[in-house]
């Protein structure tokens, strides 16, 4: 159920006319008929392919000359079902009435449309981007979870149903499913991609991110999604890599940690300087602070909906909201302030040790068996709390063929450097 579909190749073929958008849509329709019944990555939509075919024909008529074609001309994009998208209902993986969740089209969706992309459709999410899973299965092995909450987006990209898909991350919902599904995931610096038009979870730490199969494609997408993107000269020098030693790293499973140490050894062999630095010594406190902030802001954001539709929420989501109702204002303020403190601590440690880039396991280990749980996001949490840019790169596989990813994090605002360096690391680790 896996299929090569790098975004950079699709962009080049479409803009140069080696592939026309209508033919591409027809190819994806055949692909979806073959694999979608087994992975269920897309929210069902009547007449999806008629809609897409018409949009592709309109695009061809508007841009007949290759010189006039916009940068993402004809690229089909999956949109996680927490983004509002013109013409499509938003349900956020929930049982609430769609009319309750209506809103203006997400800014990220609009940016992709203006760059020439076509909206393939909504992708499956856990309920309100929390832990209650949808039906999506991992294309590497349908008996395993694709991760959450951006499960449908990661699985759709891995299966070749679209070369680009939007996701969100409040704890680990881009990086973890990217690792489980063996694709590239990118979570930029906090608010580098605006979250307007997205059903929020915890606004203080919600990030808009996305998935591709290739780092080159991720860079192309980032240039149109991120505010004030800068083009960097190539080639880039090798970064000095930091390994976060201590109780944070010990949260990984034995399988995940063994694979990560092999990846670190590969980087050393390739000539990278690797520094082991003690950081996140208080990881239990960071985890608790982040989780309590999430619960409180979820309760605040859902106050009206929950008051009317509490019986339609899944039990796990209800428990989070009920917990959040008990979080005091002072604790919320402390949680928000802790984000800036952690970011400053990371930057201080990097400066003291001469580190350009952190590397860590992208998940505790491979995707767990079953789809009743989406896996543990604990390896992603502190980077999200600090709001620093993070990328997931495919790096290894278990003997059973399940992907094991590595995540790379750079200082706040250094998103361009992160993707430039990630391209190097992907060549070494891939």
- Give the strand line-up of the largest sheet: 2-1-3-5-4-9-10-8-6-7
CATH homologous superfamily caption of the largest domain:
Amidase signature (AS) domain
Count of spatially separate domains: 2
CATH class of the largest domain: Alpha Beta
Spatial shape: globular
Helical residue percent?
Answer: 40-55%
Query: The CATH topology of the largest domain, please?
Result: Amidase signature (AS) enzymes
- What integer is the average pLDDT? 97
CATH architecture of the largest domain: Alpha-Beta Complex
Order of helices and strands: HHHEHEHEHEEHEHEHHHHEHEEH
Low-confidence stretches: none
Structural class: alpha/beta
Helical segment count: 14
Number of strands: 10
Query: Percent of residues in beta strands?
Result: 5-15%
Instruction: Specify the biggest β-sheet.
Output: 10 strands, mixed
Global Rg: 20 Å
Task: Measure the end-to-end span.
Answer: 20 Å
Key terms for this structure?
430 residues; alpha/beta; Amidase signature (AS) enzymes; ten-stranded mixed β-sheet; 14 helices; globular
């Amino acid at each position: 159920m896996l299929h090569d579909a790098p975004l950079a190749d699709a962009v080049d073929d479409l803009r140069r006319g080696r592939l026309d958008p209508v033919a591409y849509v027809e190819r994806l329709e055949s692909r979806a008929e073959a694999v979608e019944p087994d992975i269920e990555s897309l929210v069902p939509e009547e007449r999806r392919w008629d809609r897409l075919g018409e949009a592709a024909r309109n695009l061809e008529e508007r841009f007949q000359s290759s010189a006039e074609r916009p940068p993402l001309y004809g690229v089909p994009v999956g949109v996680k079902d927490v983004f509002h998208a013109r013409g499509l209902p938003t349900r956020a993986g929930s049982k609430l009435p769609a009319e309750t969740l209506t809103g203006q089209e997400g800014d990220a969706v609009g940016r992709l449309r203006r760059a020439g992309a076509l909206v393939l459709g909504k992708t499956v999410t856990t309920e309100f981007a929390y832990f209650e899973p949808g039906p999506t299965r991992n294309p590497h092995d349908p008996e395993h979870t694709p991760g959450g909450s951006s499960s449908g987006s990661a699985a759709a990209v891995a299966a070749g149903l679209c070369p680009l898909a939007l996701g969100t991350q409040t704890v680990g919902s881009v990086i973890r499913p990217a690792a489980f599904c063996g694709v590239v995931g990118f979570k930029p610096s906090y608010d580098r991609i605006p979250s307007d038009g997205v059903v929020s979870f915890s606004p203080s730490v919600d990030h808009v991110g996305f998935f591709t199969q290739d780092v080159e494609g991720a860079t192309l997408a980032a240039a149109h999604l991120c505010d004030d993107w800068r083009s960097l000269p190539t080639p880039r020098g090798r970064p000095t890599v930091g390994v976060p030693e201590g109780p944070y790293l010990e949260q990984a499973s034995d399988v995940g940690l063994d694979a990560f140490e092999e990846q670190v050894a590969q980087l050393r062999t390739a000539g990278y300087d690797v520094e082991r630095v003690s950081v996140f010594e208080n990881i239990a406190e960071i985890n608790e602070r982040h989780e309590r902030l999430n619960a409180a802001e979820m309760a605040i954001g859902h106050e009206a909906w929950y008051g009317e539709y509490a019986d339609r929420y899944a039990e796990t989501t209800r428990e989070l909201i009920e917990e959040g109702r008990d979080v005091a204002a002072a604790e919320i303020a402390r949680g928000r302030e802790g984000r800036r403190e952690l970011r400053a601590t990371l930057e201080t440690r990097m400066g003291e040790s001469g580190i350009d880039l952190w590397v860590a396991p992208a998940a505790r280990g491979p995707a767990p068996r079953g789809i009743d749980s989406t896996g543990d996001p604990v390896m992603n949490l502190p980077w999200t709390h600090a709001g620093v840019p993070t990328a997931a790169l495919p790096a290894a596989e278990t003997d059973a063929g399940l992907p094991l990813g590595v995540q790379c994090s750079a200082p706040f605002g250094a998103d361009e450097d992160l993707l430039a360096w990630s391209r190097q690391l992907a060549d070494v680790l891939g």
